[in-house]
Write a structure and sequence with these properties.
The complex is a heterodimer of chains A (115) and B (112).
Chain A: E1 4-7, E2 10-13, E3 19-25, E4 32-38, E5 45-51, E6 57-58, E7 67-73, E8 76-81, E9 90-98, E10 103-106, E11 110-114
Parallel strand pairs in A: 2-11
Antiparallel strand pairs in A: 1-3, 3-8, 4-5, 4-9, 5-6, 7-8, 9-10, 9-11
Chain B: E1 4-7, E2 10-14, E3 19-25, E4 32-38, E5 45-51, E6 56-59, E7 62-67, E8 72-77, E9 86-92, E10 101-102, E11 106-111
Parallel strand pairs in B: 2-11
Antiparallel strand pairs in B: 1-3, 3-8, 4-5, 4-9, 6-7, 7-8, 9-10, 9-11
Classes of the chains: A mainly beta (115), B mainly beta (112).
């Protein structure tokens, strides 16, 4: 149990294009999901908190118009990187909490490379 | 906000030895302290967690201790094996349902 999946696992795109990353809780429902970004050899940095049925909460310094988050159901949250640029190249990881303890389990991550 | 510091940044041990990783946190409101193992190119995997009402928790070769007064918690891995080699992250949050504040990670290498 407590499996979180992400799709795609890896994506390469041209500068200026938009990329959508999906995060799914496979065997449980998640009211809240979190999106993190991790640069090489660095720690995970929280980007935003995604709540089902409401607007996401973004961390300071994260542009909400650039990183669009949609949490349309209790098992799916999506992160869209709009007009991606090379500096957006990173490892994007989502996590979801499991009731009732809300322990967070992470997805396998999505490697984004913007050329 | 919460600030989590983690030491050491790298740790090399011989197979069979113990490994200890230490973290400190700043926010006295933090009550939940998980540890994650991350292998190259993969997402973090929860290996053990502890809540503030407990001082120690053990799961086979892995144990975590928590000192709320001193605001520090530690991960102990005994009888290390080469497959334990990975980056380990500590984290803290006010509750298990909140976003996590991560330490900078410890790269553990277990040599045969």
């Amino acid at each position: 149990g407590a499996v979180v999946s992400q799709h795609p696992s890896r994506v390469i795109c041209k500068s200026g294009t938009s990329v959508k990353i999906e995060c799914r809780s496979l065997d449980f429902q998640a009211t809240t999901m979190f999106w993190y970004r991790q640069f090489p050899k660095q720690s995970l940095m929280l980007m935003a908190t995604s709540n089902e049925g409401s607007k996401a909460t973004y961390e300071q310094g994260v542009e909400k118009d650039k990183f669009l988050i949609n949490h349309a159901s209790l098992t799916l949250s999506t992160l869209t990187v709009t007009s991606a640029h090379p500096e957006d190249s990173s490892f994007y990881i989502c996590s979801a909490g499991v009731d009732p303890e809300e322990t967070q389990y992470f997805g396998p991550g999505t490697r984004l490379l913007v050329l | 906000g919460e600030n989590v510091e983690q030491h050491p940044s790298t740790l090399s041990v011989q197979e069979g030895d113990s490994a200890v990783i230490k973290c400190t946190y700043s926010d006295s409101a933090s009550n939940y302290f998980p540890w994650y193992k991350q292998e190259l190119g993969k997402g973090p995997q929860l290996i053990i967690d502890i809540r503030s009402n407990v001082g120690e928790k053990k799961d086979q070769r892995i144990a975590v201790t928590l000192n709320k007064t001193a605001k520090h918690f530690s991960l102990h891995i005994t009888e290390t094996q080469p497959e334990d080699s990975a980056v380990y992250f500590c984290a803290a949050s006010p509750n298990s349902g909140y976003a996590l504040n991560f330490g900078k990670g410890t790269s553990l290498l277990v040599t045969p």
